[in-house]
């Protein structure tokens, strides 16, 4: 398993590119049937949500990349964000085109006056009522997706804050360890200097002792020599 600081970023970027490829295929697919086109656009929207989540994860992971290579990853992240925005715009345009095509299709369909709203039917025909209900359902689904996106964003922000807090704690621990090592080095240097002084004094005392013993031996020899002579 790759444990390099950029491994997770690369993995999220690869997943993002795969989502973008499938989204492009769905948006480029001009399905002739309205229902098929709507289903393709719904799937594209769900995959766009997943791609947005991948970009959020990339934005988090880039904080842990070393400064020496972070600039190139910032460029890749900006490119991913631009691509995501472009695909979101394409999805919005595709939805507008689908809605326009559906409206034109319903307007051009033959009728014998049954499609006109009656005085006691404020919502018009069943077709109008169905479109209104479909629009309401679509709005509710959009609200749910928005709430889910907000929840994911809050969770991601919380995780990012926890990661930054852990990194700050680790940095403080490393700095404390470095300060402890520096103090230990200073203590070892002082102890080494003290030992050297003690050894030097020991040699001095030994030299003085040998000198005194030598002088005593010389005096004894002189005294013995004088007595014998």
TrEMBL record:
InterPro entries (UniProt xref): SNARE, T_SNARE_dom, v-SNARE_N_sf, Vesicle_trsprt_v-SNARE_N
Location of region: Disordered: 95-128
Gene3D superfamilies according to UniProt: 1.20.5.110, t-snare proteins
Membrane topology annotation: Single-pass type IV membrane protein
Subcellular location: Membrane
Pfam families in the record: V-SNARE, V-SNARE_C
Keyword Transmembrane: yes
CDD domains listed in its UniProt record: SNARE_Vti1
T-SNARE coiled-coil homology domain span: 131-198
Regions of compositional bias (Low complexity) in chain numbering: 95-109
Keywords: Coiled coil, Membrane, Protein transport, Transmembrane, Transmembrane helix, Transport
GO terms assigned for molecular function: SNAP receptor activity; SNARE binding
Biological process per Gene Ontology, one example term: Golgi to vacuole transport
Record's GO cellular component terms: cytosol; endoplasmic reticulum membrane; ER to Golgi transport vesicle membrane; Golgi apparatus; late endosome membrane; SNARE complex
Transmembrane segments: 207-225
Family: Belongs to the VTI1 family.
Protein name (database record): Vesicle transport v-snare protein vti1
Species of origin: Pholiota conissans
Top-level taxonomy: Eukaryota, Fungi, Dikarya, Basidiomycota, Agaricomycotina
């Amino acid at each position: 398993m790759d444990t390099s600081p950029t491994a997770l970023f690369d993995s999220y970027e690869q997943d993002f590119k795969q989502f973008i490829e499938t989204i492009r295929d769905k948006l480029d697919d001009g399905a002739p049937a309205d229902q098929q086109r709507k289903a393709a656009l719904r799937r594209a929207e769900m995959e766009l949500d997943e791609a947005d989540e991948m970009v959020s994860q990339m934005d988090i992971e880039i904080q842990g990349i070393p400064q020496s290579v972070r600039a190139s990853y910032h460029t890749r992240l900006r490119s991913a964000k631009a691509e995501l925005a472009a695909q979101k715009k394409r999805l919005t345009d595709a939805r507008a085109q689908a809605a326009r095509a559906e409206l034109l299709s319903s307007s051009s369909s033959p009728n014998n006056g049954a499609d006109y709203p009656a005085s006691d039917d404020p919502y018009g025909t069943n077709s109008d009522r169905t479109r209104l209900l479909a629009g309401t359902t679509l709005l509710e689904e959009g609200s749910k997706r928005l709430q889910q996106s907000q929840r994911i964003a809050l969770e991601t922000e919380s995780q990012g804050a926890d990661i930054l807090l852990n990194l700050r704690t680790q940095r403080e621990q490393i700095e404390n360890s470095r300060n402890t090592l520096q103090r230990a080095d200073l203590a070892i240097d002082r102890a080494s200097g003290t030992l050297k002084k003690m050894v030097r004094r020991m040699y001095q005392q030994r030299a003085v002792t040998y000198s005194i013993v030598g002088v005593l031996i010389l005096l004894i020899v002189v005294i013995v020599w004088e007595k014998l002579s």
